[in-house]
Amino acid sequence: MEILRDDNGKKGQFTATINGEQAGLMTYTWAGDNRFIIDHTEANPAFSGQGVGKGLVMAAVDFARENQFKILPLCPYAKTVFERNADIRDVLFR
């Protein structure tokens, strides 16, 4: 799975592809200079059970850690990933 990030300065997205086909998408909105809101995560049903959604959230966590950003997960899926994985809460905006 390949995950790429695209950002226009106000909003951005992480896109997952598998074998050249879009497997999932996660969108975010900047909320200041050092935090962003994950507002939507979706996975292509054709790739169900392959960890696409979690992979997208983890890509956002890696991006946040590398840049000392915080994440506010408003998307229900992303929020659940944070609730189930204590080891990624260091980037959680509280």
Automatic annotation (TrEMBL):
It comes from the Bacteria. GO terms for molecular function: acyltransferase activity, transferring groups other than amino-acyl groups. Gene3D superfamilies: 3.40.630.30. It holds the Pfam family Acetyltransf_CG. Residues 1-94, 6-93 form the N-acetyltransferase domain. InterPro entries: Acyl_CoA_acyltransferase, Gcn5-rel_NAT, GNAT_dom, GNAT_YJDJ. PANTHER family: BSR4717 PROTEIN, PROTEIN NATD1. This is Uncharacterized protein. It comes from Parapedobacter composti.
